[in-house]
Amino acid sequence: MKCNKRYILQFILIDFFIFSLLGYLFFRSILMSVLLVVIGTPFLFLIQVKEHKRKQKQKLNEQFKDAILSLAALLRAGYSVENSFEEMRREMIELHGEKSMIVVELKRIIRKLKLNVMVEELLEDFGKRSGIDDIKNFASVFKTAKRSGGDMLKIITKTARMIVDKCDIEREVSTVIAAKRFEERLMLIMPAAIVLYLNISNPGFLDVMYETIQGRLIMIACLIVYAGAFVVGEKIVELKMQ
Fold this sequence. Notes:
Distance between the termini: 19 Å
């Protein structure tokens, strides 16, 4: 799952602003601001891209859940597996919009179905490209059911229900983690906000921290601790999400 150019540019601009501001707050130096931008931007950019991809995968998984529920309903209504994809696409457009990820994938599947590509192969390809375990598992179950001649409706309905239950649990966990991530971000912003407030409200109060060797060493140490707190916070949140 790729990150498009709009998000890449957005992340770079945000990172430039953040590290330029940190350079001013901790050193009041253009040179140090440039140095922080050069060192910090690639590191933060990778974290932002990773987080963006995680959110996109989560969003696609939620949309896929709706799609297979729709598929199960269409099969119960008497549609064949192949013919149900076109109707499913219409339902997903109403539910998620024309440009949603699931609609784009369904269009891709429908286009290749018209070229006589097997639906199980298309689902397997979808699972590999998305990197989402639920889609991979569904494709595997679908392939086995179709080739073994099992009760397709029963198998798809049961699999859909299992995926829905799993998605509901993951959504609840994500909600809790999102709240903790907000708390982490707030705690990280507060020290920088306090320094910024002191610089604005009483410009001369922190001059000693910028004009003496001891003060600059203390500010360097504070920046290192600040960066360390960010890394530790990200690792804690990442572990909770796994």
